[in-house]
Amino acid sequence: MFLESQFPGLKWSKNLETLIDLYKKQKPILDQLKIELKEMDGELEHELNVLSSNIDLKVATIFQTSPELRNSLKTSGNYALSELEENIACLTVFLDTVKAGVDTEKIRKGICVRQCLKRVDYALDQLLLFLSEPFKDLTSREQEILVNLSEGLSNEEIADKLYISIKTVKNHVSSIYRKTGFKERAKLVLAARSVLG
After folding, report:
1. What is the CA radius of gyration of the chain?
2. How crowded is the C-beta side of 193, counted as CA atoms within 13 Å?
3. Are 180 and 134 contacting, i.e. CB atoms less than 8 angstroms apart?
4. What is the arithmetic mean of pLDDT over 82-93?
5. DSSP string, 151-192
6. Going from the N-terminus, what domains does the chain have, and what CATH number goes with each?
7. For 153-164, b where at least 16 C-beta lie within 10 A, e where not — what string?
8. What is the pLDDT of residues 122-139, one digit of tens each?
9. Which helix (H) or strand (E) element contains residue 107?
C-alpha cells in the first residue's frame, strides 16, 4: 500500500530514521493520552505503557546494528520497513485526531492507539528478524512469505492472501530454505517466531 495516495498531505519516507523520528514526535501526544486514561482505565493505560516501552527497546536494538546493515534496508525494498511505515502512519494519523480533540471517547481512542502500537511493535519485530542472520538476505517477497509462514499459514492460504500462485509460493519457500540453511519448515518457522514473538 502506498501511503502517499492515502494521505496526500503527508510526506512519508521508507527511511528508517525518518520513520522513528516521526514516531518519537508523537510520543508527547501518546503520553498525554496515557495520563488521561490512567483515571478511567488503568489496565489500558498500563498496556499502552508496556507497548511503548517494548517499542523503545526495539528501536534501541535496531540502532545498535551496523549503519551499513540499516542502510541496506533502503535498497532492498524491505517488507518489514513497508509494514513499519504503514503502521506508524496509522498511529500518526490517529494521534493527530487525539491531539485535535476530535469528539470521541478517550477509552475508544486508547483502544485504537493500543492496536496501532501493537502493529508498530510487530513491524519492529519483523525488522529485527530481517536484520538478523540468517534472514537478512531475503528479498521483500520472501520476507512477506516468511512472516505468513510464521503465522501458521499453509502455502495455499499464502497464495490466496497474496494473490499469487501456489507454485510461486513454493518457489519462494524453497529460496528461503536455500538462503537460510533451514531444511525443515517447522525449524524455519520456530526460528522466525523466536524473534517475532
Report:
1. 18
2. 11
3. yes
4. 82
5. TT--HHHHHHHHT--HHHHHHHHHHHHHHH----HHHHHHHH
6. 3-131 (no CATH), 141-196 (1.10.10.10)
7. bebeebbeebee
8. 888 888 888 888 998 899
9. helix 106-130
- Of residues 169 and 116, the one with the higher pLDDT is 169
Q: Is 179 within 8 Å of 171 (Cβ atoms)?
A: no
Half-sphere exposure for 188 (CA within 13 Å, toward CB): 24
- Distance (Å, rounded) from C-alpha 55 to C-alpha 125? 9
Among candidate residues 116, 110, 93, 95, the one with its CA nearest the CA of residue 36: 110
Q: Is 133 helix (H, G, I), strand (E, B) or coil?
A: coil
Determine if the peptide bond prior to 134 is cis (ω within 30°): yes
pLDDT given at position 75: 57
Say what the pTM is: 0.71
Residue 104 parent element (H or E): none
Residues 72, 119: Cα–Cα separation, whole Å: 23
CA–CA dist 80, 146 (Å, integer): 11
C-alpha cell at 48: 499502552
